[in-house]
Design goal:
alpha/beta; four-stranded mixed β-sheet; three-stranded mixed β-sheet; 13 helices
């Protein structure tokens, strides 16, 4: 039974069972004066449970975790409206958040922003109010989650240019985070990839966006309904469950116009990219098998074996290579070769499985490497998705980079 003074926290983690009740009792709101002469109180955030990714969480237990608490900031409403057209409309456009006629102080005008991150909002408000002594230096790095939370707010309130002094160093920091996964045995956490994708989208970095899109398309599996998902800890989570999906990203715009294809949203584009990677990966073996069974001249089947032209063992060599390939595919669960749409695992696992397929010749040892699968697998996985290179994405990236002075 939950204590009467306890509250039910809102979890921001995809790893946590939503039925868990937290017994934490907040000890009052944090009040921070950004502008001593401010006329507006912003109540930012709500009490949230913050769990470390990958925790084993049971529905009848309350695991160890931290809390994010809401904060109230005293600010100047005019400064906010000058910085953001969104805030100008919200505060002075006749909405419920507009200033009450009876308000005489900041305590009389309270606007609640429960979905926003208090720490990121403090940074935004300090920039707007020129409190530069409380801001990171131009050369300071910022951790991935803090940068992600900042870019969520700059997108929401149309404040991207505010980050101009820090943009270059922070983009480089995000890129280094992505590159660090390629230099170690640590695999990227998919939720981190989601954050990096959003950061690249908001800060207008086409290279990071392309790289992150490629990795995301390859590390997601699909559920029975064809929806993208990924493993985190002991749970399977839907993609963009706790992270916003970049809006307005579509497939190749020219093809969409020429062939009247429906314009895709980002998740659909990502599904299409994943399917394309699977098709290209399976095609390596489809072509390899076709080389043994369909490569003919004048109805005569050509030999794959690289032995001498008149070597009587060429036929036996071909049979050995093809036979071991099929047996190995069968042992891994890929024979008969499945349709790309039947593959539910992620592309990375599929490629790793197929890289382990044995191709052996009991006749000519030199023929075992006749089909260089490893290089072909690596090549098809390096190609970025079509949508990541589309004119719509390039235009968006250029627009954001211009706002930040990074173009």
């Amino acid at each position: 039974m939950m204590d009467s003074n306890s509250i039910e926290c809102t979890s921001s983690s995809a790893d946590v069972d939503p039925t868990i009740i937290c017994s934490f009792v907040p000890q009052g709101l944090s009040l921070k004066v950004i502008d001593p002469d401010g006329d507006l109180s912003l109540k930012v955030g709500e009490t949230r449970c913050i769990y470390k990714s990958g925790n084993d969480v049971l529905s009848d237990q309350e695991p160890d975790h931290e809390h994010q608490l809401p904060a109230v900031y005293i600010v100047c409403s005019k400064a906010l409206s000058r910085a953001s057209p969104v805030w100008k409309t919200l505060l002075y456009g006749g909405f419920a958040e507009s200033k009450p006629s009876s308000a005489s102080s900041a305590s009389d005008w309270v606007v609640e922003l429960p979905d926003d991150d208090p720490k990121a909002m403090a940074t935004i408000l300090n920039i707007i109010h020129s409190r530069f002594d409380l801001l990171p230096r131009i050369t300071d790095l910022v951790n991935l989650d803090d940068l992600y939370q900042l870019t969520v707010l700059t997108d929401k309130y149309d404040l991207t240019p505010l980050l101009r002094p820090w943009a270059s160093i922070w983009i480089n920091s995000a890129t280094e985070k992505y590159n660090s996964w390629g230099c170690s045995s640590t695999s990227p956490v998919t939720s981190d990839l989601e954050r990096l994708l959003w950061i690249a989208w908001e800060l207008g970095d086409p290279d990071l966006f392309s790289k992150t899109s490629t990795t995301l398309a390859q590390c997601c599996s699909i559920d029975a309904n064809g929806d993208l998902q990924y493993n985190t800890g002991n749970k399977v989570v839907a993609l963009f469950n706790t992270t916003p999906e970049p809006p307005g990203i579509y497939g190749n715009y020219t093809l969409a116009c020429l062939y009247r294809r429906p314009i895709l949203n980002f998740l659909d584009a990502l599904k299409a990219a994943r399917l394309r990677y699977i098709e290209d990966t399976l095609a390596i073996y489809q072509k390899a098998i076709a080389a043994f069974t369909e490569n003919r001249i004048n109805s005569r089947l050509l030999r794959v074996c690289k032995g001498a032209t008149h070597d009587p063992k060429k036929k036996a060599c071909d049979a050995g290579i093809l036979g071991t390939m099929i047996l190995s595919l069968a042992s891994l669960g890929y024979w008969p070769l499945p349709a790309a749409t039947d593959i539910r695992t992620n592309v990375t696992k599929l490629a790793a499985d197929l890289a382990d397929v044995e191709i052996l010749s009991p006749v000519h040892i030199g023929c075992t490497g006749v089909y260089q699968r490893s290089d072909r697998l690596k090549l098809c996985l390096k190609t970025p998705p079509d949508y990541a290179m589309s004119s719509l994405v390039k235009t968006r990236m250029a627009k954001q980079a211009a706002k930040l002075g990074t173009n």
